[in-house]
Design brief:
single chain; mainly alpha; 8 helices
């Protein structure tokens, strides 16, 4: 969906077109859920955050500035909601791991499951400002510019936080014997 198409959908939403909002919901529901899940590592919490994000999007469409990408605006809301959820829940424990891919040899599947669990534990151990940047860059494949727009911070800060987040992950993985 191009920026022009998104702008048209947002304009239609602002004028009360529910189908236009449905189109935005369909386009962004899965990416928002995935971002929230990577931050929270709990499907129910990620669903709650996703629902809250779209409620806030609907309520605040008049505040969206079309000079910026809609993608950046909605991801910023998703990241902020995820961080708020983490703060409310005061999470630090490891949560249920992701399902593994079917196929391949069983030993490799076990190693992959252990690696994913170790990485998730390490992610949950680092501060949300570092975790957010790592998730956006490495799990959602956002560019430095996109992360900068989503979080409303300079690109240099993105790079700095990403570097620090990677270092903290490495230290955590080393301590747990994963590296």
């Amino acid at each position: 969906m191009s920026k022009t198409d998104e702008k048209e959908l947002v304009d239609r939403c602002r004028n009360g077109d529910r189908r236009a909002f449905e189109a935005l919901l369909i386009k962004y529901q899965k990416p928002v859920f995935n971002a929230a899940f990577r931050m929270l590592h709990n499907a129910e919490d990620a669903k709650d955050v996703t629902q809250t994000v779209f409620l806030k999007v609907y309520e605040n469409l008049d505040k969206y500035d079309p000079a910026y990408r809609f993608f950046s605006w909605i991801y910023r809301i998703a990241m902020n909601e995820s961080i708020s959820c983490l703060t409310r829940m005061n999470r630090s424990e490891t949560l249920e791991s992701e399902p593994t891919d079917e196929g391949g040899d069983p030993e490799q599947q076990i190693r992959n499951t252990q690696l994913k669990a170790g990485l998730q534990t390490a992610l949950m151990d680092i501060k949300p400002e570092y975790r957010t940047v790592v998730v956006l860059k490495h799990f959602l494949d956002c560019s430095y510019l996109e992360i900068s727009e989503i979080l409303e911070i300079p690109e240099k800060t993105v790079k700095s936080r990403l570097y620090e987040g990677r270092q903290l992950l490495r230290e955590s993985l080393t301590r747990s014997g994963m590296r």
